[in-house]
Amino acid sequence: MWNKARELAELAPPERNRWVDFLRALSIMAVVIGHWLVAAPYIDADGAVQGGHLLGILPWSQWLTWGFQVMPIFFLVGGYSNGVSWSAQLRKRQPGQTGLYRDWFASRVQRLITPVFPVLLLWAGLAFAMTLAGMDRANVKLATQLALVPVWFLAVYLLVTALTPLSLRAWQRFRWGSIAVLVAAAVAIDWLTLAQGVPYVNFANFLFVWVGIHQLGYAWNDGAFASVVRALAWFAAALAALIGLTVFGPYPIAMIGVPGAEITNSMPPTIALLALGVMQAGLVLALEPWGRRMLQNLGVWTATVLMNGMIMTVYLWHLTAFVLVMVFAWLMGGVGLHVFPGTAEWWWTRPIWFALYIAALLPMIALFARHERMFGPIRGGRTVPRLRVALGVLAICVGLAMTAAISIASPEGLTGVRFWVVALPFVGAALLGFGPVYGWFRRDRQASGGSVG
User: Fold this and answer.
1) Using H for helix, E for strand and C for coil, what is the string for the chain?
2) What is the pLDDT of residues 104-122, one digit of tens each?
3) What average pLDDT score do residues 262-269 get?
4) Least crowded by CB within 10 Å, which of 5, 108, 125, 155?
């Protein structure tokens, strides 16, 4: 894998912004480490397994989420990449060509959703087997939901990506005004939620907040952050706003959900998370000149290419590795699980546990990472009808959202599996004109750009 990554690294054009690829890899790695750290199950004095949560056990650790909640960086990078990709698609348009957007978007969806199929099928099978074996259904749901919760991000990211032609046009026409409108809308949503108690309206911030950060990617590509001083100014202003909103305002310090908390900054996102995203954007863009120089080193750039070539596999399977290690420890008599989270002994044993998680993840990478570059053509090479695109994306997003929100494990029925939830992403892929057979069994030898794209 290293040799292949090195070949791809050497083929990268000199004009490529390698800092984009580095930030994508860095953000996913931070998410993985954060998840492995914050999930802290243990066995209590009565011998029962407790699903400990580090942020709830050690309140001071909630500050760490300002560094580990890096999904905003992924959306920043997504804005940059989607803007470049869609602009290139427009430049290649032939006179009278139709279906340009539909073909482009179906291709983007295929790259994101194809790696989900194996992990979704595996856990559907495990949930079925555990139910038949008589395992407590609450534990089946806990394990399944924990392993598959990362898919929520893909549902939101697909919706944001779908809006790329509109959001890019808005940036090109209104510039910073296109971001100001989204910020104002997010503020209004939070006011309706917190001050007026209007239910469910806060879900609109999944779009307002994430599209707002996605817009910053367009600004980055247009050179709006080329000045280090300007980027640092954005960082400082956003940091001040974040401190005001959390330390002195109504928002919690933690940028992810904490058990028992009345307000969460991430589900749905709030303006505090938006401020965090702007702060992180200012910081990483201020570091860009240094980062580009660092990535001229072939070894560092090869490692970046390697990580980008398995990025979805690592993201989708890292919690499966975690669950398998926990189950194995429990079957071994609870070895290592009798240490209470947050104690000195617990911290000193983290490197050992992380090594076990990595050891469990490596076979999954070896088995599934190659599928990230095995993309066949959209079925028949035909343009997918507009209605099918809409229905396909809707089915995929609903399926992924329900997988994270309610789990594919069912508390009722003989099978213990919500097959309709499992089926929706597959139905959506079929409507868009591709499916597992295209991604899993067709080796596409023209994948040289896929590993870092």
Assistant:
1) CHHHHHHHHHHCCCCCCHHHHHHHHHHHHHHHHHHHHHECCEECCCCCEECCEHHHHCHHHHHHHHHHCCHHHHHHHHHHHHHHHHHHHHHCCCCCCCCHHHHHHHHHHHHHHCCHHHHHHHHHHHHHHHHHCCCCHHHHHHHHHHHHHHHHHHHHHHHHHHCHHHHHHHHHHHCHHHHHHHHHHHHHHHHHHHCCCCCCHHHHHHHHHHHHHHHHHHHHHCCCCCCHHHHHHHHHHHHHHHHHHHCCCCCCCCCCCCCCCCCCCECCECHHHHHHHHHHHHHHHHCHHHHHHHCCCHHHHHHHHHHHHCHHHHHHHHHHHHHHHHHHHHHCCCCCCCCCCCCHHHHHCHHHHHHHHHHHHHHHHHHHHHHHHCCCCCHHHCCCCHHHHHHHHHHHHHHHHHHHHCCCECCCCCCCECHHHHHHHHHHHHHHCCCHHHHHHCCCCCCCCCCCC
2) 888 888 888 888 999 999 9
3) 91
4) 125
